């Protein structure tokens, strides 16, 4: 609950901070207005940490640059065409933008850039009322023409103007509604949700890269499942990630199985909890969270209703990995993220065979080898994938995974498992077999790696004997 007295005190502290105070005085001395705007004001009122400072002013870009230069250790004007000048002042990065009064053509997201004359008009063109507040400096004075404070108190997301107009100007704001709902724990107003549902098809004018950026920001929040539910319920997610709503499989009275959609959101929440527990203080792991959300997307395509009343999803891990690769490529994710997510999806079922009976050391080695650098994420995803309400079963699976992690640690200590290599390298293989570089060297290398995985360290002499014997069988 927002405490206004405490919130106003925090605004006062923000205005008095060295960066804000020095910029406020400089602009006032030069005869211009200046205000901290948007997220920093909202977060100060809510008592949340703010990383970047955004300002708005009636000064034009050339004037901004002239005023900022004496105060800045660095400055850049890459956004000059849009009225934005960036700078580093007293060690903090700031952006200062001329008041805007843009118009949109409804065909693209690119506005016709028009500078405005008043702070109030600038604020009314912003996405949500809670982001449409400003703190005039050096005053200081809170400016809130759209009722953002009231919406902060109510925990409501509203647009400063009719949401149909706001989303018509910039359809990406519909995605931001879901992101801010997750980030702030707020509820979009009914008219906002209705507008998203009605205008969702307009998202097609937004580039995949921008959609990906908002999806990443949503997944970085503490409760992304809250935003995902909004995207699913309004149908907006159908435009860029239809595999998620497809998880809502129909369940009839004769063929029972888990609600895959709800299960996936639970796995996402549990993965986030484990991520924080195992890596405290680390940045949100978007790759892990994507894998948790998408790990079962292969189930709808592989579902089979069995005669006895059960339901099977054979090879949904492999199918899901392929589907995820295609979708993430369409959203322009980078190659490393795509590879990691698809690998995690494809391997997320591997552990469950261990719970049915202890693996040999060679099986554990293979598990680690196949996971490679994704091992820690695979640990988290596999543990998070246990959502059964059967406490005995959940305890048994947790105990089994505790055991496999213990064995991995022991083998790693004994054999430096993470850096496992055959005992003979490629050059030595060529010398022993008298062959040139080529595919046969790779086949021999893989044979020796299997020996190492199955039997551990046997020594170079024994490895050479085994290699010669293997090579003789090929003659």
UniProtKB/TrEMBL annotation:
<feature type="domain" description="HD">
    <location>
        <begin position="260"/>
        <end position="370"/>
    </location>
</feature>
<dbReference type="GO" id="GO:0042245">
    <property type="term" value="P:RNA repair"/>
</dbReference>
<dbReference type="InterPro" id="IPR043519">
    <property type="entry name" value="NT_sf"/>
</dbReference>
<dbReference type="Pfam" id="PF01966">
    <property type="entry name" value="HD"/>
</dbReference>
<dbReference type="InterPro" id="IPR014065">
    <property type="entry name" value="tRNA_adenylyltransferase"/>
</dbReference>
<keyword id="KW-0548">Nucleotidyltransferase</keyword>
<dbReference type="GO" id="GO:0008033">
    <property type="term" value="P:tRNA processing"/>
</dbReference>
<keyword id="KW-0479">Metal-binding</keyword>
<keyword id="KW-0694">RNA-binding</keyword>
<protein>
    <submittedName>
        <fullName>CCA tRNA nucleotidyltransferase</fullName>
        <ecNumber>2.7.7.72</ecNumber>
    </submittedName>
</protein>
<keyword id="KW-0547">Nucleotide-binding</keyword>
<dbReference type="Pfam" id="PF12627">
    <property type="entry name" value="PolyA_pol_RNAbd"/>
</dbReference>
<keyword id="KW-0819">tRNA processing</keyword>
<dbReference type="InterPro" id="IPR006674">
    <property type="entry name" value="HD_domain"/>
</dbReference>
<dbReference type="InterPro" id="IPR002646">
    <property type="entry name" value="PolA_pol_head_dom"/>
</dbReference>
<dbReference type="InterPro" id="IPR050124">
    <property type="entry name" value="tRNA_CCA-adding_enzyme"/>
</dbReference>
<keyword id="KW-0808">Transferase</keyword>
<dbReference type="InterPro" id="IPR006675">
    <property type="entry name" value="HDIG_dom"/>
</dbReference>
<dbReference type="Pfam" id="PF01743">
    <property type="entry name" value="PolyA_pol"/>
</dbReference>
<keyword id="KW-0067">ATP-binding</keyword>
<dbReference type="InterPro" id="IPR032828">
    <property type="entry name" value="PolyA_RNA-bd"/>
</dbReference>
<keyword id="KW-0460">Magnesium</keyword>
<dbReference type="GO" id="GO:0046872">
    <property type="term" value="F:metal ion binding"/>
</dbReference>
<dbReference type="InterPro" id="IPR003607">
    <property type="entry name" value="HD/PDEase_dom"/>
</dbReference>
<dbReference type="GO" id="GO:0005524">
    <property type="term" value="F:ATP binding"/>
</dbReference>
<keyword id="KW-0692">RNA repair</keyword>
<dbReference type="GO" id="GO:0003723">
    <property type="term" value="F:RNA binding"/>
</dbReference>
<dbReference type="GO" id="GO:0004810">
    <property type="term" value="F:CCA tRNA nucleotidyltransferase activity"/>
</dbReference>
């Amino acid at each position: 609950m927002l405490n206004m007295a405490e919130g106003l005190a925090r605004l006062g502290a923000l205005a008095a901070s060295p960066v804000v105070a020095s910029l406020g005085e400089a602009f006032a001395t030069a005869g211009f207005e200046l205000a901290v705007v948007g997220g920093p004001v909202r977060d100060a009122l809510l008592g949340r940490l703010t990383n970047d400072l955004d300002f708005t002013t009636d000064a034009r870009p050339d004037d901004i640059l002239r005023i900022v230069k004496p105060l800045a250790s660095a400055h850049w004007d890459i956004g000059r065409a849009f009225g934005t000048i960036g700078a580093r002042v007293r060690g903090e990065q700031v952006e200062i933008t001329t008041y805007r009064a843009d118009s949109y053509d409804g065909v693209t997201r690119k506005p016709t850039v028009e500078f405005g004359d008043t702070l109030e008009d600038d604020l009314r063109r912003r996405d949500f009322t809670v982001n449409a507040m400003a703190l005039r400096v050096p005053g200081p004075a809170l400016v809130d023409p759209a009722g953002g404070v009231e919406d902060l108190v109510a925990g409501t997301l509203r647009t400063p103007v009719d949401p149909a107009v706001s989303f018509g100007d910039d359809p990406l704001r519909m995605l931001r509604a879901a992101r801010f709902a997750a980030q702030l724990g707020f509820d979009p107003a009914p008219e906002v949700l209705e507008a998203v549902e009605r205008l969702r098809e307009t998202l097609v004018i937004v580039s995949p890269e921008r959609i990906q950026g908002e999806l990443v920001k949503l997944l970085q929040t503490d409760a992304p499942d809250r935003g995902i539910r909004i995207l699913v319920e309004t149908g907006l997610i159908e435009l860029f990630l239809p595999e998620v709503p497809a998880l809502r499989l129909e369940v009839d009275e004769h063929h029972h199985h888990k609600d895959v959609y709800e299960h996936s959101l639970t796995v996402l929440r549990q993965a986030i909890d484990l991520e924080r527990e195992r890596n405290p203080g680390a940045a949100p792991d978007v790759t892990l969270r994507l894998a948790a959300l998408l790990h079962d997307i292969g189930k709808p395509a592989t579902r089979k209703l069995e005669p006895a009343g059960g339901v099977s999803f054979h090879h949904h891990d492999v199918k899901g990995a392929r589907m995820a690769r295609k979708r993430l490529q369409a959203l322009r994710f980078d190659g490393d993220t795509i590879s990691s997510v698809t690998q995690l999806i494809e391997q997320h079922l591997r552990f469950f065979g261990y719970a049915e009976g202890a693996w040999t050391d060679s099986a554990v080695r293979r598990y680690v080898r196949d996971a490679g650098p994704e091992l820690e994420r695979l640990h988290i995803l596999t543990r998070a994938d246990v959502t059964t309400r059967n406490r005995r079963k959940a305890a048994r699976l947790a105990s089994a995974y505790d055991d496999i992690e213990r064995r991995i640690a022991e083998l790693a200590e004994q054999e430096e498992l993470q850096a496992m290599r055959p005992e003979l390298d490629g050059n030595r293989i060529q010398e022993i077999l008298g062959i040139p570089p080529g595919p046969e060297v790779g086949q021999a290398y893989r044979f020796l790696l299997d020996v190492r995985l199955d039997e551990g360290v046997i020594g170079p002499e024994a490895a050479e004997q085994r290699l010669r014997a293997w090579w003789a069988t090929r003659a």
